[in-house]
Amino acid sequence: MQFKVHGMNVGLTPSLVEHIEGRLSVALDGFSERIRQVIVRLSRDHSHEDSHEMTLKVQVDMGGVGTVYLEQDEHDLYAAVDMAATRLKRSVRRKINRQRDKQRPLGTGSASMSFAW
Fold first, then answer.
1. Which pTM was predicted?
2. Residue 53 domain-assigned?
3. What is the residue-level pLDDT of the chain in tens, covering all 117 positions?
4. I need a surface site. Which of 19, 47, 52, 82 has the fewest CB within 10 A?
5. Mind giving me the DSSP string for 36-68?
6. Neighbouring-strand partners of residue 61
C-alpha cells in the first residue's frame, strides 16, 4: 500500500505525516492486498477570517473494486485523521462487500431453497 500526503496551506511536519500514515495503515491493514494507493490532501479553510477549520480528503484506489473518497472537517488535524481512519475502514469494507455481492450469482445464498412438490 502506497501513501501520498499533500498539504495545501498546511505545513507537513514529519510527525504529522507519520501519524497520518500510521493511523490509516492500521485502519486499512486487513485490506492492504486490495489497496493500490492512498492519497491524502490536507488544506486549511481561509474563506472566513476566524475559521481555522482543517479539511482532510482521502482517496483510496482499490483497483478493480473502485475508489473510495472521504472528506473530514475538523479544527484539530490529528482528530480529523483519527475520525477519518475510523470512517475509512467502514467505507472500504462496505465497498468490498458490495462488489462481492454483485459478483455472487442470485439464488446461491442460504435464503433460497428449492422444494420438490
1. 0.78
2. yes
3. 899 999 988 888 999 999 999 999 999 998 888 899 999 999 987 665 556 788 999 999 998 888 999 999 998 889 999 999 999 999 999 998 888 887 766 655 555 555 455
4. 47
5. -EEEEEEEE--SSTT---EEEEEEEE-GGG-EE
6. 37, 67
